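Quick board copy: two proteins, each given as sequence then tokens.
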Amino acid sequence: MNQYVRSPKDKISMNGGEGMSKGKVRRIIESEEPIFQDRVVHEVLLMILEPFFEARFSSKSHGFRPGRNPHTVIRTIRSNFAGYLWFMKGDVSEMLDHVDVDVVMNCLQKVVKDRKVLGLIESSLKFSDKRVLKRVVEKHGNDNGLGTKRRIEREKRNKTKKKILSDDEPKPDPYWLRTFYSFAPKEAAKVPSYGYCGVLSPLLANVCLNELDRFMETKIVEYFSPCKDDSIWKESIEDGCHNPAWPEFVPSSGKEKTRKMDYIRYGGHFLIGIRGPREDAVKMRKEIIDFCDRVFGVRLDNSKLEIEHISRGIQFLDHIICRRVIYPTLRYTGSGGSIVSKKGVGTLLSVSASLEQCIRQFRRLAFVKGDKDPEPLPCNPMLYSSQSHSNSQMNKFLETMADWYKYADNRKKAVGFCAYVIRSSLAKLYAARYRLKSRAKVYSIASRDLSHPLSESSNNSAPEYSDLLRMGLVDAIEGVQFSRMSLIPSCDYTPFPRNWIPNHEQVLQEYIRLQDPKFFCGLHRSIKREGLTLPQDEISEAVWDFKTLGAWRSKYENKREADDGLQKLDSQT
């Protein structure tokens, strides 16, 4: 039994005996973590199934997929969601925690026909259900006596942390990375976990939620109602203003009669934009509730599907989506040849970072206190770190935050606030560590970016920092980044293609098209019709020529030149 559950990291006894007791084997099997061999099987299944499903998933889905991330969601919203009046924000994240086995298998069986693969996935899902049921029974059952005491003692031993890690054991994440993970929005914080499926869970969640994506794609086509009198979307869904400088600019002049809808999903959260009356949004909400109840067995209420107007602002992935009214000057040539300047009216879709959410996260991590006028607090977790290490850790955090708010309109303001909090927190920490009176004293010695060294004592016999740095006894101190607003990069307004698809998905889609016999035969006939040759035909001709003639005939124009070339070869030999 041990050979099926032992990991390569497990130690084997020197006398050749079995290295695992029956109790340890039972605890491994009943634990929440899958055994080593199961993780290997799940990784292999992911390598097989992920390329197969990636080309078949909807382009509206961006969560837990290679080549797609929250930045692609924000750029898609900026480029494609201009002109919508009503927004519906949906939450089906309860499907990421637990989903019925029959629902997953029904979605898989539509595409996967291999019974062995289906059997492996179904056994993992069913075993996880049995484990959850057993845990519930143990929690609510009567377990008084020696068993309870032993279980509590075992849990205490498991909770104790190791002070020394082995070479093959994973190291904990650095402080700056743990801090950045704490800023993850609620749409991206939850990762699917279907029991013993392990790394296969995100793919299975996307397989199930792909049914919702396809349902919404059909509804988008059905709802579209164009009007030639409209300023945008006059004839087709792909119509619309797509200025490369301001891709979200939508003129508000003209009769807004076109009805249009769009949809995007990240993980268990989705956003729907509707250009039409609120009654249409309410009707669509009812249809989504009925679909989720019928297909997934999930009952949603109105609190899970909120409808908001664009003027109130919609928060998605910690970014606020709102509308700004602008009055550009339109210049055109009149009937008499004179240039006419006229004030126009338009709207811009603004996607900005949520500073309130940023303050809330800083307050939860004990970096600030207060709401309206937050006061920075000392960074106590870095109390026993050197000045160079503390500055480098916070610089990595600030670089990551600047990249996270890369496509926010108020990127300078958001990153500047984060830099102010971090710099003030470090200054208060240094004031307490080096026994200085205030932050002003720290800034006067270490400069604004805290790049100058701070000494613990004023003893003149101590060596200078420059001498210690030259000898390699101390690390160079990096200044805290973004100490001035001019050093913060501005928002990236690079236009995003409307029908953007990652490169690997394009290759997979081309491969799927070649698997179709009709498409392949038509492609082969077109190649013959154009007088072209396939690489396979050239290889076969070259092999045949070398076997029969000893030279490649296609290098010569006709057979006579090929014979002359063979005679030259014979004369040289």
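And the next:
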Amino acid sequence: MTDISEGYNFLGWNFRKYKNTLLIKPSKGSQHEIIRKISEIIHKAKAWDQDRLIRILNPIIRGWAQYHNHAVSTAIFSKLDDIVYNMLVSWAKRRHQNKGTHWIMDKYWHTDGNRKYVFCTENQTLERFSNTKIVRQRLAKLDKNPYIDRNYFEQWKRTEFHRKKISPLLANLTLDGIESLLAQRYPKEKVYFIRYADDFLVTAPTKEMAEEIREVIREFLGIRGLELSEKKTTITHIDDGFDFLGWNFRKYRGKLLIKPSRKSIGRITEKIRKILQKAAAWTQDELIAILNKTVVGWANYHRHIVAADTFGKLDHIVWNMLWKWAKRRHPEKGHQWTAKRYWHIEGNRKWVFKTGKNRLKQFSDTKIRRHTQVRLDANPFLDRHYLFSRINVARAQSPESQTKLYFFSYCRPVTGL
């Protein structure tokens, strides 16, 4: 038995009240355990290269940080980052005893954007504990919860975290029930309710019915103390099209086509433009590493729709941006010198933005792959052949890194495979 003000440890966490506010932090035993584990790995890594060391450390750091990201861990994460940094400095000095500190720092630590002293290579970057976002689960009834101070939560819920993370979740819980309500009101009509987090749309056969449904939803939300946004709520015909989740849905001569919306295209263009503005002093390798993540991520999200023409247009836009970036770096050089300096021939392509190690990926490199709807009655334990055949098809069409379905790794039965 122990008093909550004195604290106690449970499952690697420390529970203790500070000034009538319960704070949950990673326990000292858990911190010592992760430090000991990292120390043992670094001690074994005398003959390892930097890539192998980063590849071994990243899953350990990421796993421990994600387990403790629900607690008050920001200060502890920063402290652990400093400890790991000192361990890596000792590891590097043991490998190069005759070299000075400046030489060692230049070899193993580099600058990544606004961050200095990033332990990385050309292929990998060591993850930091402090890179993990804190996700505090406080969705209980706070008025009746004796373990959370209400004034502390009132201050916390006005933060950026609450607006971006908790708000869509609470809105999703509140919207639950609209679909069944519409099914009762319009049992024989083609009325469908589609929802994703706090965004939703309703399809109806006529404009009059759509206006009636809007009033039904407004009444449904009014009971719960909410109201529809007049700016975001619109009624439109499918021939005129509408945007939803970054896509534009519109019928062209009776055929429905789903394309990336203009707003989504504008956002990715602006994002790449800001990256290039920051990259005035970056090397070409650093710029390619940052742009590849942005290009591949956006293209993978839109790869299941009619996006081939959009990918080609974005490739042209990015090429023009890169050309201006290159000319700004070398204003006194001619066009031919600039082209030979940054662009090279690769196969049938003449204008490839690359170095000797990295190549900029294009939007059009991502192949369009139509999505096949999953059987709604499929069971992961009973319909094994059907679900694994979908995985095999996805792996054949995409790189393995984009088709890892961890659900089947953790939820499959022990026997019966």
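Board note added afterward: Confidence is low (pLDDT under 50) at residues 136-163, 403-417.
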